[in-house]
């Protein structure tokens, strides 16, 4: 078998269907996954998104799993966090077929152990890749069986149990599903709540005819922002393709930063669990650890990436974790990420008081930020070193290298410069007291990076 390192990524398997991924290879991945988890579980739960290739690939994977004597529970169309719910509530390892926000020609597999525990390079993916490359051994015993199950009603009921919206004032919320799985899950999750949904692009369509299902890119929020203003909505929600991330815009159509959402949800979780630990990655706003501490919580800073967040949550017993990329992790959701649960928290916070969302979130937005700025560079290490040297002797500068290079400066300014794992890029994030300070610091760092 050829080298599979191009499609077996750090956290999942992903590639172009027909070129890098086909039914035969996916069947082998299913068999290899079965071999990995056979000592732990007799069954695997499998779900898939709305891409044209997803049902066939999910069936091929199931065939591989059952060929090794394990049973399969097929839950069909679902969001990634719905698959995590199934893995947690049924206590089964899981496989989700999705390429998230990638273009239509891609597909992929996100894998987890029972209880939604992540499977990454260090925790099983490398082993799966090696098994497939070397040839999956045949199983001489009886093949497993396949059953079908709809877990969407249970998923929705579980989320509504975690966040009580019964006392909320009526809200009008525009929701852009981007033709992704939010169009499938939102109607069931919000059923019976005091929320008037204004749906946008709820039709499941893996060709993404309206816009890319990636709300991290501002151009994909434009339609939602216009709709919020047009209908006078109280807020807008935008989900990515597999609906595990959720972005929020306020009543003016202005984006609410994921850092502000992290702080808001953290305060609500701390009210239920005083003194709890809250995880935040190192490029969320410094407002997050400040607000967590002010509310009696213990902030813990981690590297960027869900495997680090989930690892820290497990080792610290954290109640909640948030990232700048709008991934939100909950102890009460098997430490897995769910944008839907974060969205319910935001709507509950909005609905239990009278102020508009822009005023509500003002308290959680203390600083100006640059957003992520990418620079193409040939030698990432040399450029990082040049930046480090430039700031090393700066009065009051604090430098750490937990994940790339982070430099804290007097006056609440800081920046992080980190290399991409997959491209010749350096990613810069800058935060400071005001826009002018952000602009000056950004220009200073970029002048070194791009020289």
UniProtKB/TrEMBL annotation:
<keyword id="KW-0460">Magnesium</keyword>
<feature type="domain" description="Alpha-D-phosphohexomutase alpha/beta/alpha">
    <location>
        <begin position="155"/>
        <end position="253"/>
    </location>
</feature>
<keyword id="KW-0597">Phosphoprotein</keyword>
<feature type="domain" description="Alpha-D-phosphohexomutase alpha/beta/alpha">
    <location>
        <begin position="8"/>
        <end position="133"/>
    </location>
</feature>
<protein>
    <submittedName>
        <fullName>Phosphomannomutase</fullName>
        <ecNumber>5.4.2.8</ecNumber>
    </submittedName>
</protein>
<feature type="domain" description="Alpha-D-phosphohexomutase C-terminal">
    <location>
        <begin position="372"/>
        <end position="446"/>
    </location>
</feature>
<dbReference type="Pfam" id="PF00408">
    <property type="entry name" value="PGM_PMM_IV"/>
</dbReference>
<dbReference type="InterPro" id="IPR036900">
    <property type="entry name" value="A-D-PHexomutase_C_sf"/>
</dbReference>
<dbReference type="Pfam" id="PF02879">
    <property type="entry name" value="PGM_PMM_II"/>
</dbReference>
<dbReference type="GO" id="GO:0046872">
    <property type="term" value="F:metal ion binding"/>
</dbReference>
<dbReference type="GO" id="GO:0004615">
    <property type="term" value="F:phosphomannomutase activity"/>
</dbReference>
<dbReference type="InterPro" id="IPR005841">
    <property type="entry name" value="Alpha-D-phosphohexomutase_SF"/>
</dbReference>
<dbReference type="InterPro" id="IPR005844">
    <property type="entry name" value="A-D-PHexomutase_a/b/a-I"/>
</dbReference>
<keyword id="KW-0413">Isomerase</keyword>
<dbReference type="InterPro" id="IPR016055">
    <property type="entry name" value="A-D-PHexomutase_a/b/a-I/II/III"/>
</dbReference>
<keyword id="KW-0479">Metal-binding</keyword>
<dbReference type="InterPro" id="IPR005843">
    <property type="entry name" value="A-D-PHexomutase_C"/>
</dbReference>
<comment type="similarity">
    <text>Belongs to the phosphohexose mutase family.</text>
</comment>
<dbReference type="Pfam" id="PF02880">
    <property type="entry name" value="PGM_PMM_III"/>
</dbReference>
<dbReference type="InterPro" id="IPR005845">
    <property type="entry name" value="A-D-PHexomutase_a/b/a-II"/>
</dbReference>
<dbReference type="Pfam" id="PF02878">
    <property type="entry name" value="PGM_PMM_I"/>
</dbReference>
<feature type="domain" description="Alpha-D-phosphohexomutase alpha/beta/alpha">
    <location>
        <begin position="261"/>
        <end position="367"/>
    </location>
</feature>
<dbReference type="InterPro" id="IPR005846">
    <property type="entry name" value="A-D-PHexomutase_a/b/a-III"/>
</dbReference>
<dbReference type="GO" id="GO:0005975">
    <property type="term" value="P:carbohydrate metabolic process"/>
</dbReference>
